[in-house]
Amino acid sequence: MAKCDVCNKDHLFGSKVSHSNRKTNRAWKPNVKKIRIIDNGTPKSINICTRCLRSNKVTRAV
């Protein structure tokens, strides 16, 4: 599922609008990566969006 475990960012819904102004449903999904982090001294694998990853909201495991 495209959901960030840190900030709970989820997919958004909207309309795709064609040149002739016809509207169909579409979804925007966040850019989510699966990485290993250090949580209370133990390594753990989570799904995190790239914005949280870039902002250093977690400590990556090496």
TrEMBL record:
Q: What InterPro entries does this protein's entry cite?
A: Bacterial_rp_bL28, Ribosomal_bL28, Ribosomal_bL28/bL31-like_sf, Ribosomal_bL28_bact-type, Ribosomal_bL28_sf
Q: Which terms are listed as keywords in the entry? A: Ribonucleoprotein, Ribosomal protein
Drop me one GO molecular function for this one. structural constituent of ribosome
Look up keyword Ribosomal protein and say if it applies.
yes
Example GO biological process: translation
Its cellular-component GO annotations read:
ribonucleoprotein complex; ribosome
Coiled-coil ranges (or none): none
SUPFAM superfamilies assigned: L28p-like
Return any one Pfam family short name: Ribosomal_L28
Recorded family membership: Belongs to the bacterial ribosomal protein bL28 family.
| NCBIfam families from the UniProt entry | L28
HAMAP family named in the record: Ribosomal_bL28
* The name this protein goes by in its record: Large ribosomal subunit protein bL28
- Organism encoding this protein: Acetivibrio clariflavus (strain DSM 19732 / NBRC 101661 / EBR45)
What lineage does the source organism belong to? Bacteria, Bacillati, Bacillota, Clostridia, Eubacteriales
This protein's gene is called rpmB
